[in-house]
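Review session, final week

We close the course with one last complete record, chosen because it touches almost every idea we covered. It is Bifunctional deaminase-reductase domain protein, a protein from Methanobacterium paludis with 175 residues. Go through it on your own first, then we will talk.
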Amino acid sequence: MNIVYIAVSLDGYIAGPDGDIKWLNTIPNENNSDHGFGEFIDSIDGIVMGRKTYEKVLEFNEWPYDKPVYVLTNTLDILSVELKNKAKIVSGKLKDILKDLNSRGLENLYIDGGVTIQSFLKEDLIDEMIISYVSLILGEGIPLFGEIKNQLNFKCEKIEYISPYLVKHWYKRVR
């Protein structure tokens, strides 16, 4: 199962024009809650992300994942030495990459990053999406969906009101 878990502005952006995600820290969060992200991470077997998302995660104080991470890239040759046993480069056709990861027992994959999510959607490889809508308009930036040529039907299975600033939706692909 390939799952998207992401926050998006009301106007459909997941990051500012330069990939900035600091706007996520403007959401009032008195309890410093992760809003279910930790529970989600516990439910997955691995993470597939694009190069730009990988580079953004490297800016964090520490590597946040204890699950194996696979970085989709055709431009990087090596990853940070500190992440030798935590992240690997993968490239090629998405279906082949998924077949390889699934054969290693990685069945539930978190798909992360704008271009990566769009690529998976274009090939109809997303099974579920958990989208947290943030009550703000960025005006410009990196869109969640971009241009997807074919209609993909999803059904909303659950909506969780977290706060006046954040509402989480669970969508499942209808095939």
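Two points worth writing down before the exam:
The longest strand covers residues 154-163.
DSSP finds four helices and ten strands in the chain.
Good luck, everyone.
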